[in-house]
Amino acid sequence: MSVFAPAPKPKTHLGYHRILAPSAGLRVSPLCLGAMNFGDAWKGFMGECDKETTFGILDHFYENGGNFIDTANNYQNEESEKWIGEWMEERGVRDQMVVATKVGLRLDIYPPSGYANCYCSSPRTTTRVQILRRSRATIPETTQSPCSSVLRLA
Question: Which of 119, 104, 15, 29 is nearest to 69 (CA)?
Answer without folding.
Answer: 29
